[in-house]
Amino acid sequence: MMMNEPDYNPLRAYLNGLAPLDEPEWRSFRDILSIRQFEKKGVFQAAGTKCKTVGFILEGCFRWVKNTDGEERTFDFALEHEFVTNYHSIITQEPADIAIIAVERSVVACADAKKMLQLFDTSFNWQKIGRHLAEYVACYSLERLMASYYDSPRTRYQKLMKNSPELFLRVPHHILANYLGMTKETFSRLRNSTL
Questions:
Q1: Nearest 5°: phi and psi at 95?
Q2: Most buried residue among 19, 42, 93, 157 by CB atoms closer than 10 A?
Q3: What is the residue-wise DSSP string for 98-164?
Q4: Taking 60 as the threshold, does the pLDDT of residue 1 lie above it?
């Protein structure tokens, strides 16, 4: 029985939004892609290992988790049509101290990170895509850092509700509370006050 060709259209549309890839440019990327499926709590990236994969989520949701003294701390999420990887580990070639774990059953288009970085040097469009992705990571990281220092728990909750309301339907609330740096009780109070 032959398997259906995966639907890479969301990934191609995302990349074309950054720079219009012609057919040979897209094919050069398509040739290094593979599909991986993850069950709930499946590990995309294990802590303590070097990240070698860049993924684009076709279906599902992931969270970034750091374990400190036996206590898990969730500090980011990614949903459909977003990238999932550890850029820091890829660029520095250091083992990741963060795990990336599926929140629900997920399907990811994966590329070898080394081959993808090499692809960025093959054309102006790929250089442009690489630059846009790096700029996004830098801006997003600064926004998250500023929010963690200066936003109150209520403000962080409100921003998450405004920017990613689907997380409240798909992620267990104790994980969202952990992500926002608050107790489950505080999360429940905030949730009840906004209903």
A1: -60, 145
A2: 157
A3: SEEEESS-EEEEEEEHHHHHHHTTS-HHHHHHHHHHHHHHHHHHHHHHHHHHH--HHHHHHHHHHH-
A4: no
